[in-house]
Automatic annotation (TrEMBL):
The lineage of its organism: Bacteria, Pseudomonadati, Pseudomonadota, Alphaproteobacteria, Rhodobacterales. Pfam families: adh_short. Keywords: Oxidoreductase. This is Short-chain alcohol dehydrogenase. GO terms for molecular function: oxidoreductase activity. Transmembrane segments: none annotated.
Length: 255
């Protein structure tokens, strides 16, 4: 799918980090971009920066999500591109100091990272199915989800996060198969350690240690590199039903 004025995009979790980088890259490519985020102020700030539109929504609340998507569609039309970057990553062990993992925290991580991702993807896909086919393949839309290398090599303290990102990776192929007859592709990116605000807030020695887990290049990933891959997926119609690792050959150790 060619990215341009006739391919509106929505970036979920676009107020900061990887999502904000994707929003900027899509806007530079000519697409109308809507920012959907729990952080209403952050969504508006990025939208104002790129000449797009912002809307607040809680991805775990289907009604809130539907209202936000409706507002963005009214402003820029039915999205043809959906990039899901929203997620949380609290750290907790299965058992710590004799106490089990907080069940509510585990459920919250799955609610945001799995149910929230699915809610955004399914609602967006429903809208895409009503859109006219585009291009020689009759494509109606592209959905890109965000998994993580923690889906494959979750570290100590990442049991909830690893489970959630594993679930995101697992939904890609069946979702792609569900939507194939409608001309909608589904992919996911599994990033390694990227220089998002959460990571750059760590002490420098911690950042350096994280960078050392990469084989080459031995550094943190740059958000624009994630954005470039996301837009490349949109542009290559043969990419469908798979998860792409973006990690400089990183294989996470246990801690």
């Amino acid at each position: 799918m060619n990215i341009g004025p006739d391919t509106p995009a929505v970036v979920v979790g676009g107020a900061s980090g990887l999502g904000a980088a994707v929003a900027r890259h899509l806007a530079q490519s000519g697409a109308p971009v809507g920012i959907l985020d729990l952080d209403a102020g952050g969504a508006r700030a990025v939208a104002d920066e790129i000449g797009g539109h912002g809307a607040a929504a809680d991805v775990t609340d289907p009604d809130s999500l539907a209202t936000a998507l409706a507002a963005l569609r009214k402003a820029q039309g039915q999205e043809r591109i959906l990039i899901c970057c929203a997620g949380i990553a609290p750290a907790a062990k299965t058992v710590s100091r004799g106490a089990p993992h907080d069940a509510a925290l585990f459920a919250r991580v799955l609610s945001v990272n799995v149910a929230g991702t699915f809610n955004a993807a399914s609602q967006s896909a429903a809208g895409m199915t009503q859109a006219s086919p585009m291009g020689p393949d009759g494509e109606r839309g592209v959905i890109v989800l965000t998994s993580s290398i923690a889906a494959y090599e979750g570290q100590m303290g990442q049991v909830a996060y690893g489970a959630s990102k594993g679930a995101v990776a697992a939904m890609v192929l069946p979702m792609a198969r569900d939507l194939a007859s409608h001309g909608i592709r589904v992919m996911a990116i599994a990033p390694g350690v990227f220089a998002t605000p959460m990571v750059t807030g760590f002490p420098q020695e911690v950042q350096d240690a994280l960078a050392e887990t990469s084989e080459f290049p031995r550094r943190l990933g740059a958000p624009h590199e994630f954005a470039e891959l996301a837009t490349s997926i949109v542009g290559n119609s043969m990419l469908n039903g798979s998860v792409i690792r973006l990690d400089a050959a990183t294989r996470m150790t246990s801690k």
